[in-house]
Amino acid sequence: MSQKFIKSQNKNSHSPAHGKYFTKAVYDNYFIETEQLAEFIQTQASVKKSDIKAVLDELGGAMKHFFELGQKIRLDGIGIFKVGFSSIGVIRLEDCGAANITTRRVLFQPETTRVVVGQEKKSDGSVKRKYVNAITLLKDVVFEETHENAMRATVSSGSNAGSSTGGNNTGGGSNTGGDNPGGGDQ
């Protein structure tokens, strides 16, 4: 399997990237729910699906508990989760408090692995290695072009993949990719 993408042209005449083509992620129409995740993990481990599902069902509550204590949560092989929020600015110190918090969110920082991508031999005989930080979860993901704006659900377990979410979800989020017009973290 692979992460599918389509080619998309930036048609925003006010953008410096106007007319350029970009790849845009294409997602399945469905979410993988706890049940399917538990089924998959069961095939990879020696733990029963019912036990895995029970743990996954408790994960949200456990995370909320530690967020309320001001803790960050690190899941090995996945990354770090922590609370983030925005607030309204005020002029006086005494007017600043919890009532000023406007939006709350969970911030996610994926685990990264340092990968050697090359090396250079210096004139003194030493070797300088070039590294890149690769997101562990995405390190071996393969990308493949498609011509459909939404993939069809293909769940190997044969069970319902979940509720429809409106096929053209491109991730939303902020534009972090330079002149990527997609608006997502692609």
Describe the protein.
This protein has a three-stranded mixed beta sheet with strand order 2-1-8, with no helix packed on it. It has helices at residues 34-44, 49-68; strands at residues 3-9, 21-26, 73-75, 79-87, 101-110, 112-121, 127-135, 143-145. Helix content is 17%, strand content 31%. A hairpin with a 5-residue loop joins strand 6 and strand 7. The chain is extended. Helix 1 crosses helix 2 (49-68). With 186 residues, the protein is of the alpha+beta class.
Give keywords.
186 residues; alpha+beta; three-stranded mixed β-sheet; three-stranded antiparallel β-sheet; extended
Could you estimate the helical fraction of the residues in percent? Answer: 10-25%
Overall structural class, as computed from helix and strand content, comes to alpha+beta
Question: How confident is the prediction overall: mean pLDDT?
Answer: 80
Count of DSSP E strands?
8
SSE string, helices as H and strands as E = EEHHEEEEEE
The largest sheet is: 3 strands, mixed
Shape: extended
Radius of gyration: 22 Å
Number of helices: 2
Q: Strand percentage, roughly? A: 25-35%
Quote the distance from N terminus to C terminus: 18 Å
Detail the poorly predicted runs: 155-186
In the sheet with the most strands, the strands line up as 2-1-8
Summarize this structure briefly.
This protein is α+β, with helices and mostly antiparallel strands and 186 residues long.
